[in-house]
Amino acid sequence: MSSLEVTPMRAWLTVALLWFVGFLNYLDRVMITTMRQSIVDEIPMTDAQFGLLTTIFLIVYGVLSPFAGYLADRFNRSHVIVISLVAWSVITWLTAHATTYGQLLATRALMGISEACYIPAALALIADYHGVKTRSLANSVHLSGVMVGAGMGGVGGMIAESHGWAQAFAWFGQLGVVLAIVTAIFLRDQRVLAVGKTAATPAMEEVKLGEALRSLFSSRGFLLALGYWGLLGMSVWAVVGWMPTYLKEHFSLGQGVAGISATGYYQGASIVGILFGGWLADRWSRTRANAPVLVPLIGMGVAAPAILLASSTNVLPLALGGLMLFGLTKSFADANMMPILTLVSDKRYRATGYGVLNLCACVVGGITIYAGGALRDAKIDVSNVFHFGAASIVVCAVLLYFVRPPTGVKV
Predict the structure, then answer these.
(1) Per-residue pLDDT tens for 135-151?
(2) Domain limits at 366?
(3) Which of 166, 191, 237, 344 has an alpha carbon 20 to 30 Å from 350's alpha carbon atom?
């Protein structure tokens, strides 16, 4: 037997370790959106090409997510996480050495490959350690790290103004390698500890990609969740990809201030929302089994008008207030997506299922970001993308309303 035990302390230690990994995961991917001017000054490109830098990341990331999720279901989840962290950190460092648009585009595509393995494996590992009484909150605490990382993306813009855009990528790439060493020492797979083995267990070996996909797509609840998560990705990535530029130009802000405003206020509110949404779902689950569905449903009802306010007013405090309200209530969905997945899918295929959800959300989100750049090149206000995103949230709420867990699903 392993000398380590599956205990509540280890379950929360796992969440704590993944908090820092998730932080760096999103910081590395988002900060490029906050340093647009600095990059364009050194590597000339159109707005559509700049949007394509995020689009190519999302499409590669999304397309590979189902396979990455399958790897986390099939093999040791903690090993998948550490390898992913090392890979994207090295690629972040390499990004600092790009001197042409083609090289920059290539590093963003490679970033999509390396980061695809992280989120499905991390969320599935947390779901392994935590039952229905703590699952939403544990998921929320981990994703609060993701949001802090995204919120700190504005630091990239500030570093770019004072030290050049490449320096931020160099520093955070090096930090990731150090974090990977710490994570490799302390992170363990719950399934290995549970059976007292150190290699792939029989439960891992029986997972097959074809069977996993057939199981997932035969679930009506999963199909509804897939549509819901994909449309939500449209609105979220529109905000993440173009809100810094929108605030800079619409309110005549500096690059650093606009980046911090777009990411800091939004992600700060998102952290509060994800923790509250996770806590509320866990508490409500004591009397309502579908609480992980009901909590984000309430959030969608507030998020749609909030993003309309943020993108329609000429008063900066109102725009920031709408952005914060959107972040607060949209985060109810983030807190409960994996818990929803546990309601509508077989527990053996959680990571694969989340990978499929990521595929849909990222492809839709990537197209949305590119469309924003194309609209700007055509001299059309990018706020139209935000308005379309608000409409998609309304459809999200309708789809979510009909999500019901099938009978016989192991959670």
Answers:
(1) 888 988 998 888 788 77
(2) 8-401
(3) 237
